[in-house]
Amino acid sequence: MANGGGLRMLAEHACFGGVQGFYEHDSGVCRAPMRFSVYRPAQASTRRVPVLYWLAGLTCTEETFMIKAGAQRVAAELGLMLVAPDTSPRVRLPGDDVHGDFGLGAGFYVDATLAPWSKHYHTYSWVTQELPALVAQAFPASGAQGIFGHSMGGHGALVCALRNPDRYRSVSAFAPIAAPSQCPWGQKAFAGYLGDDRAEWAQYDASELAARRGFATPILVDQGTADEFLTVQLLPDRLAEACRASATPLQLNMREGYGHGYWFVQTFVEGHLRHHAALLAA
Amino acid sequence: MANGGGLRMLAEHACFGGVQGFYEHDSGVCRAPMRFSVYRPAQASTRRVPVLYWLAGLTCTEETFMIKAGAQRVAAELGLMLVAPDTSPRVRLPGDDVHGDFGLGAGFYVDATLAPWSKHYHTYSWVTQELPALVAQAFPASGAQGIFGHSMGGHGALVCALRNPDRYRSVSAFAPIAAPSQCPWGQKAFAGYLGDDRAEWAQYDASELAARRGFATPILVDQGTADEFLTVQLLPDRLAEACRASATPLQLNMREGYGHGYWFVQTFVEGHLRHHAALLAA
After folding, report:
1. pTM for the full model?
2. Are A68 and B68 a contacting pair at CB < 8 A?
């Protein structure tokens, strides 16, 4: 790891022949220290490798995916670097820990425009611009980028990719909040971070973006049928409709009996890594 | 799951085609509610399958291995049931949470003889007798049993197997406390749970047991060379000496650069599951 942009290494561990690391830097766009984790496969010690970003869900941190998903084994085989950002700034704001679905651990990958969140909650710009620039400077990243995520992070991954097709060649999601403008989690977050202007919301709604913009490579989504949030919060049918409208290929796998958590994610993560690796190598 | 012995299901999740469950029962030998987790592979829905027990390390619970080790994928392939007991009773005793290496989360898999621990801390009998009987009653277990574990749980797994070769056909360990009578963790635990009689300690010391009794099948041990506890607490060389003394085959893999935690365990867990599956199928 090169020392770029005030990057601080918090811990590094050998894992599947590579290095599992945890880092912090002083983010300019978030005006706060921001944490993220990086898994570097052994291939990254001799060449630059593609980077696959993981965006985590509500209440998670930069550690969750790396601990729970079992992805390093496959990333080591495929020569993919994994980067998992934290889910919000960790600066205390009034009332930020009253809710599990707003504030701390629930940044929703937007650039907030309403005070007090507008001071620090610029996680859309952090994830899509500042963090990739830092990763490119400090780690052996090739420039090929994919992005995936879970729940709130599935929403984030879809939005980041759909708005930045030049930056991300591949996108997938597990149980994403697929139409946040139409579900309670998304409506609460968008109203709190962005205010009442639905045109602002549309910039962060995967289904609205997919219908308007489409995407060049197939979108892969896995969804458990026993997921308690399926019908009220996640709404994958809206994403399917939107992809049909823009003729974007969507592989939506409904997984019988699976729930919402990492027991589900770990079961299907290998297929997602292979999906990204194939597109990132192309 | 059949309902045997006051078993209470706390949660069940689909995972790699099988079921990841968390359970509690009222233990007679521990006189307390005791928790454990079970991974049942899909094969267990049509036949009885071998059971592989995992004993976890200091501060861990029945969840740790199931969340962090990535073992379910391989267990699903091999048709192994995984059972992970909690690391101590969760009954509050005076001073039990002062230390990370004694009391809560640190039962050391012994039957304590000193008060106040002697009332509840009978985790050796719980792990080797009461829990397997409950598992056999409530889950489709074939009767073939193996055991493995990590750190304090590596100690526990070796002790359980060496003392009960009729109950366990296979044993392995990650970074075990291999000679607890000779290291600070073990000495503190044994003095606190068992008193000053070194003959009592010897019944729970893997190296003393290995030298005296040996074991019929090869013992597999993985140990990281960058493990901070290697030279003071773990002492795998003592186990190697003991196995030589009893002509017990020991495969001791020293893993260059690996540490003590689950980053290390997850990297090598597949080899351990295959080791056990081969011996349990024989």
Report:
1. 0.96
2. yes
